[in-house]
Design brief:
4 helices, 8 strands
């Protein structure tokens, strides 16, 4: 697919560089041009007039437990220790693959809405999170959360290795 975005205020990754009334051309999944010159719209499958809008690189959320969107507002008036040990851990023990999938998909939708295009997730039942990521079209680095708080951490390490073997580079990286 070929896309042209024109009349945009483009914030670039070059320090202090903003292109006013700029144009971005995308071919397939690659940004092919960023500048001020537009091309005839008939050359594109989709033409977007971004007049009055800002275009900037996608945001990155570097630390998530995406499925925990299901716990938003849950016991939020507690100390960290009470919140975690008395409320969150017992609630997480009741999660299944389907709940993690739906919680992760909700988080993906919220990230897309906020301009996040990539996130790092470290939780459990990772196949469900990966399924949500693939369906949403986002990019993610998904890793099995491994802690030393119990004697089962070796199982978590094995799960992490299996995830890497199964999914490293999936969905075009």
């Amino acid at each position: 697919m070929k896309i042209q975005i024109k009349n945009a205020q483009i914030i670039t990754m070059d320090e202090g560089r903003v292109i006013k009334n700029g144009c971005i051309r995308i071919h397939q999944e690659t940004i092919a041009y960023v500048g001020t010159e537009t091309a005839p719209e008939e050359e594109f499958d989709r033409a977007i007039d971004a007049r009055g809008a800002i275009v900037l690189p996608g945001l990155v959320n570097a630390h998530t437990h995406a499925a925990m969107t299901l716990f938003r507002g849950f016991a939020d008036d507690m100390t960290l220790e009470s919140w975690l040990f008395d409320h969150i851990f017992p609630a997480e023990d009741k999660l299944d693959q389907e709940a993690v999938y739906w919680g992760s998909l909700l988080a993906c939708a919220e990230m897309i809405r906020s301009g996040t295009t990539l996130f790092a997730d470290m939780y459990f039942m990772n196949e469900s999170t990966i399924r949500a990521v693939i369906e949403s079209g986002l990019n993610a680095n998904v890793a099995r959360c491994v802690t030393g708080m119990n004697t089962e951490y070796r199982n978590g390490l094995e799960e992490a290795k299996e995830l890497y073997t199964e999914y490293h580079g999936a969905q075009s990286g």
